[in-house]
Write a structure and sequence with these properties.
The complex is a heterodimer.
Chain A (H helix, E strand, L loop, with lengths): L4 E3 L2 E4 L5 E6 L6 E7 L6 E7 L2 E4 L8 E4 L6 E5 L8 E8 L8 E2 L3 E5 L1
Parallel strand pairs in A: 2-11
Antiparallel strand pairs in A: 1-3, 3-8, 4-5, 4-9, 5-6, 7-8, 9-10, 9-11
Chain B lengths: L3 E2 L5 E4 L4 E7 L6 E7 L6 E6 L3 E5 L2 E6 L4 E6 L8 E8 L5 E3 L3 E6 L1
Parallel strand pairs in B: 2-11
Antiparallel strand pairs in B: 1-3, 3-8, 4-5, 4-9, 6-7, 7-8, 9-10, 9-11
The chains are: A mainly beta, B mainly beta.
Chain lengths: 114, 110
């Protein structure tokens, strides 16, 4: 595809439900990032993959958050037992390699926890 | 903790004027600097990157970097109403994780 794609674009979950957010990066991009963006704020780093290896997960806010990229392409961000404070836009970005810092963002998934 | 500071605005300029957006950062080890444009309800779009001190021009956009002062700026010449958006400054250090500012809202009036 031409750009980063994410699905679903919108997700409404009841508090306590588990959700899974998918990211399909630009073809051939080695690095993949997840960010969380609250209303009126800049994106905040969650986790980083280089190919299938998760090299940094320091931004994940709790152990309810889990991310994977098993084949080095598509990635899934899973949130277990969702809470209202998890409501945000979840952005995925990819970059060509671990040296090129230019990251390209997908459209995001807006998660609303009721 | 790495911080990136931006004036939240809004910065209001008339059509055709120069818009000047500023950003400061706390980590002296930062190596790469980016400006993203974000329209309301959309995701960030990369518009400029700069890696060394000085100016970098791309069309109507000029990015300026001063590492000694830990300062990055973006100039938009001949501002258009379509430039109205939130502009996010992002800084990378280490491998490639970006630290973003909160963004400056720019309003260009016809």
């Amino acid at each position: 595809g031409a750009g980063v794609s994410q699905s679903p674009r919108y997700k409404v979950a009841k508090r306590g439900q588990d959700v899974a957010l998918r990211c399909d990066p630009i073809s051939g991009h080695v690095s993949l990032f997840w960010y969380q963006q609250a209303l009126g704020q800049g994106p905040e780093f969650l986790t980083y993959f280089q190919n299938e290896a998760q090299l940094d997960k320091s931004g994940l806010p709790s152990d309810r958050f889990f991310a994977e990229r098993p084949e080095g392409s598509v990635s899934t961000l899973k949130i277990q037992r969702t809470q209202q404070e998890d409501s945000a836009v979840y952005l995925c970005a990819s970059s060509f390699d671990s040296v090129t810092y230019e990251q390209y963002f997908g459209p995001g998934t807006r998660l609303t926890v009721t | 903790q790495k911080e990136v500071e931006q004036n939240s605005g809004p910065l209001s300029v008339p059509e055709g004027a120069i818009a000047s957006l500023n950003c400061t950062y706390s980590d002296r080890g930062s190596q790469s600097f980016f400006w993203y444009r974000q329209y309301s309800g959309k995701s960030p779009e990369l518009i400029m990157s700069i890696y060394s001190n000085g100016d970098k021009e791309d069309g109507r956009f000029t990015a300026q970097l001063n590492k000694a002062s830990q300062y990055v700026s973006l100039l938009i010449r001949d501002s258009q109403p379509s430039d109205s958006a939130t502009y996010l400054c992002a800084v990378a250090s280490g491998y490639s994780t970006l630290t973003f500012g909160k963004g400056t809202m720019l309003l260009v009036s016809p």
